[in-house]
Amino acid sequence: MVREPRRLSRYIEVELRRVRLERGGRLILRDIDWTLSPAQRWVLAGANGAGKTQLMKLVAGAVWPTPTGRERRRYLWRGETHATPYSVSEEIAYIGAERQDRYERYGWNHTVEQIVGTGLYRTDIPLDPLSRQDRRKIATLLARLGLAALAMRRFLTLSYGERRLTLLARALAARPKLLLLDELTNGLDARNRAQALDWLNAARTRMPWVLSTHRVQDVPRSATHALVLARGAIVYRGPIARAPLERWLTRRPLPRSQRGVPVRGSGRAAPLTRLVRSSVYLAEQPVLEDISLELEAGQCWVVHGPNGSGKSTLLRTVYGDHAVAAGGRIERAGIQPGVPLEVFKRTVGLVAPHLQAEHPQELSVREVVQSGRHASIGLAERPTVADRRAAARTLQAFGLRSLADRPLRELSYGQMRRVLFARAVVGMPSLLLLDEAFAGLDAPTRHALMRETERLAERGVTLLIATHHKDEWPRCVTHELELDRGRARYSGLVRSSVHTGRGGGRS
User: What is the number of helices (H) and of strands (E) in the chain?
Assistant: First the structure.
């Protein structure tokens, strides 16, 4: 093996040979041969379920390869060779949706400064007060990533994109010798996405990294190599200049047989929801201020704005997860005082990142989809015949039948997102709330789900969609709400100068 220059020896080199990974009796990765050298920066591509996340976890030491007697792993660092990642695992930083979800699942609502501080000491939660020197280091790092204003904010009050950048700062605080970034740009607005890519492109950043992505525009220009997976096997490995990334990241939509569920009219009147001068506070911090909005049957609203502008909070307020502060009000057609909010929620479909954290990982795909008919997390009672039949139809239509008995912990991020779509649609909702619902999806799945969203609108379903990407605006969009720092900058009919068809991303 060719040794890297002495100046790069402080970084980790990883060699995998004939590595295989099985989970639940299924083959996830097969015959992986891959060498990550310190001078290289890799882009990892492939469809949802191809094995990208599991490969990163295997490199990081979070999962163990299936023993065959043929596999070999070598980690070279500081002139020493290790047969497993055990001795170097603390020097490898992994950032992905699963780690981000842990904070939601366990209620770790520390300040941004404290969370970045755990990177300095490589702990999960803060154990000791930060020193003055610690705070200076953290402040410098947050400033580099444009997060200085968030230092004292509580993690669970941040937007999805702000949380992702906070965890990047935490990883960098640990000064890792290898950085693994699983869909880093998910949930980032245009400004923060550019800032993250600028950091990866910086000439001074010699740290080797691996970045998985489903969007060709999120491939950093500093990437040197690419690895493409298909069904757990490597189909390309080599210089990025010769990599077929355009083919893998912008593939054509799925065939008609996999285009989604044929939703029938529910027979219910679509709900009319009104927010009147509504403000919402989280952890005593104002997140939405003086928002007025009326959703009428058949409308399609797109909510956009930078990270932290309040998009997710708005959708969760409409759904009923957050209360409106005194002085404002929210009205829902058919929901009078004394009527449980769950009655309204059963007429609403919701797809949002926090749902991936809230569902117990041992639940099966079938159980999650069935729960959509009751707007519950899991099933409090045995499913009825109607529940089972509706779930079976929806699983079939979404191409999830083969996954029906799989527990959530065995799904990829993109597969789980398809499950949440099926859960949202199974009850034939009158209102569909989509919060960054297409993030983390490969191009065919993204296109198929966007078509299904447009079909729902054609059948009279009211849509409220939060997104950072202009190419995710449906053709049927009728209205838009632009948020900035919790306030409405524009609310009304979609502006012709903004809605120009599907093109590049925007915040």
Answer: 14, 19
- CB under 8 Å to 166, separation ≥6 — which residues? 112, 115, 116, 147, 150, 155, 158
Cα 222 from Cα 203, distance rounded (Å): 8
* Residues in Cβ contact with 332 at an 8 Å cutoff, skipping those fewer than 6 apart: 271, 272, 273, 344
Examine the domain organization and report whether 235 and 371 are in the same domain.
Answer: no
Distance CA 170, CA 165 (A): 9
| Domain at 241, CATH number | 3.40.50.300
Provide the 8-state DSSP code for 213.
-
Residues 365, 241 within the same domain: no
**Residue at token pair 């935490």:** 170
Quick check: 45 and 245 in contact, CB under 8 A?
A: yes
d(CA 189, CA 193): 6
In-domain check, residue 331:
no
Q: Do 230 and 107 belong to one domain? A: yes
- Residue 225: which domain range? 6-249
The residues near 80 (Cβ < 8 Å, ≥ 6 apart) are: none
CB neighbourhood size of 114 (10 A): 20
Tens-binned pLDDT, residue by residue, of the chain (507 aa): 444 444 446 899 999 999 999 987 889 999 999 999 988 999 999 998 899 999 999 999 999 999 999 999 999 998 899 999 999 999 999 998 888 888 988 889 999 999 999 999 999 999 999 999 999 999 999 998 889 999 999 999 998 889 999 999 999 999 999 999 999 998 899 989 998 898 888 855 578 999 999 998 899 999 999 999 999 999 999 999 888 787 777 654 444 334 344 444 444 444 479 999 999 998 888 999 999 999 999 899 999 999 999 999 999 999 999 999 999 999 988 787 777 888 899 999 999 988 988 888 899 999 999 999 999 998 888 999 999 999 999 999 889 999 999 999 888 888 999 999 999 999 999 999 999 999 888 888 899 999 999 999 998 899 999 999 998 999 999 999 999 999 999 999 998 755 444 443 333
Asked if the structure places residue 154 within a domain, the reply is yes
Label the pairing between strands 225-230 and 285-295. Answer: unpaired
